[in-house]
Amino acid sequence: MLDAIWLVPALPLVGFLVLVFLGKRIGEPLSGWLATAMVFGSFVVSVLMGLSLLDAPDHTFELSLFSWIPAGDFQVDIGFLLDPLSMTMILFVTGIASLIHLYSIGYMHGDDRFPTFFTYLNLFVFSMLMLILGNNLLVTFLGWEGVGACSYFLISFWFTKDANASAGKKAFVANRVGDWGFMIAMFATFLAFGSLNYTTVLPEAPGLAIGVATFIAVMLFVGAVGKSAQIPLFIWLPDAMAGPTPVSALIHAATMVTAGVYLMTRVNPLIAASYEWVTWLIAGIGALTLLVAATIGLAQTDIKKVLAYSTVSQLGYMFLAVGSGGYAAAVFHMVTHAFFKALLFLGAGSVIHGMHDEQDMRRMGALRKLMPITFGTYVIGWLAISGLPPFSGFWSKDEILTYALNKSPVLYAVGLLGALLTAVYMGRQVFLVFYGEPRWNDPIPEDAPATAHTDDADDAPVDEAAHAADAHDEHAEVHPHESSWLMTLPLIILAIGAALIGFINIPFGDLDFLTRWLEDVDDLHANEAHLPYSSATILLLIIVSTVVASLGLALAWLTWIKGVLPRSLWERRFFLKAWYYDELVTRFMGGPGRALFEAIAWFDRTVIDGVVNGVGAGAQLAGRGLRRVQNGYVRSYALLITIGAILVIAFMFTRLLVR
Asked: Which residue in 132, 185, 320, 512 could disulfide with 89, CB within 3.0 to 4.6 Å?
């Protein structure tokens, strides 16, 4: 049965190929249903593979399909590695992607490029599955680049707006920086091991020279930082909101951004073989990212921008877990995050759809009665991400905080502060959107916080609101309504998952099913930090994190519902402008950075190309000189032979005289 694992990525690939050639002919909605059926079929096969994997030795199965690159000592196959880690990933990727596809049929209804959208979605899922299932770094990199290319297609899907096209290019370029690190790591891995296969490289990692292991691990981390939007490469992810909302859900929840965390977990033996400062680097970047992104989320006015910075922050928690030795905790939070973040993004899309493409939370309010299904499911996602028991985010985030405390009290304090801010900015969003007085048809007050792109609105990604700008005036009459069943059914299923999926890894007794399931993954159990805390201590930490999350929700209630606390306490311009980091990067790239890049281009053009061209020119000059000698006249050749003979005789006489 496991031999059929190739069907998991093959089905979305078939859907992509059919839609490429026949999509326009099939049209709407059949093209959407076809794409959804292909991904759902992949999910069904994944479930069957998971059941079969239970009986496999060490819960691991490897399949080589064919030789891809046979080049001397460099041999790379297209092959798949199915183990508890990849199995866990493909289950939630295909499952949640199926729901996003179904949702998209309703959301993208009426779009002129409806079949093209689903073509890209199927290709995206295929690329992500290749990334997960690849049994070597190069196949993983193939999928890695595939999701990067698809993100460009989907983020800039409504490319007729320059801002949307720019957002896609920004994502593409930022990811190329991380991809450079991944490529360098692959080169170093082949030089060190003579192979790129995980089953060859990872078991031999403990015997590798510590400097080499450190170099490879750091370069792979650079790749992960780019793909998973960590500081300093996080700037592309908020602008990815320019794509349709289902794209936001697919990129932020189930695919792409979790690829970096998956890679770090996969190569944990290399991290364990590195210098200790590598784990501090990973944990430190994660902690800094989760805190900075959480503060930025406090002041955003776009409903999707809040969730975008929330994603950056939650990914920071996952890297904090990896750096603290909590690999299973990172995977656990990846799973729970996939459910509640997909739920929140699709819920936000339902709100935008019901509000006739309005995304500014300052023009919402009192939607809970008009959109009861969206509201009820959104509340579950809100409580899950805020870390309140018994919802899924509570269990996974608390486990990460426990590992952070074991690593350093400072990291624990940062994680706890991030949890407080998460509850505040998510509470702010829910209260502004679903509570209070209706502000649907009111102009935005002059004293209201400006959007993050007020100073450069012409260059800001604008998402659905911009796509519908011609049809929707800012002050037009708005009549909010609930979405169709195609959009609400996925919300209900995701809400059930967001509420219950946390119970797969409860940190008491033998209830940590996910942790025990992952023990066979590349020595993950041996390399994972072992917590010294008793059940009583863990229970105390759970109480502390619950109190902190509850305090955050209370502060949000006192600020945006009761008005006891001033909004300016949280909605600060410094946070609204994302710490001015994006602007600093833009100014650098347009000033000193541009001069630097032009100097590098000049050096490449003049020096590097000059040497290469000089060799060619020298060869041409020498050829012209020798061509004159070869003139075809016998007397010339006889003269040259005579001259050569005289020179040889003269040389011999000089040697005799020296003796």
From this structure: 132
Q: What is the spatial distance between Cα 66 and Cα 72, in angstroms, rounded to a whole number?
A: 16
Contact 565, 559 (CB under 8 A): yes
Question: At what angle are helices 372-386 and 485-500 packed, to 10 degrees?
Answer: 30
Whether the Cβ atoms of residue 235 and residue 174 lie closer than 8 Å to each other: yes
Cα–Cα distances (Å) from 165 to 148, 172, 257, 317, in that order, read 15, 11, 20, 30
* pLDDT at residue 630, rounded to an integer: 75
Which candidate, 93, 502, 429, 98, places its Cα nearest to that of 261? 93
- The structure's pTM equals 0.86
For residue 564, the number of C-alpha atoms closer than 13 Å in the C-beta half-sphere is 6
Per-domain boundaries in the chain:
321-577, 594-658
Instruction: Express each pLDDT in 318-334 by its tens digit.
Output: 999 999 999 999 999 99
The label of the residue with tokens 């290319």 reads 149
CA-closest candidate to residue 461, choices 124, 169, 28: 169
pLDDT (mean) for 246-273: 87
CA distance 223 to 184: 10
Burial class (CB in 10 A: 0-12, 13-18, 19+), 645: exposed
Measured between alpha carbons, how far is 403 from 326 in angstroms, rounded to an integer? Answer: 6
pLDDT class of 254 with cuts at 50, 70, 90:
low
Q: Is the pLDDT of residue 286 over 50?
A: yes
Report the C-alpha gap between 103 and 650 in whole angstroms.
Answer: 93
Contact (CB, 8 A) for 340 and 276:
no
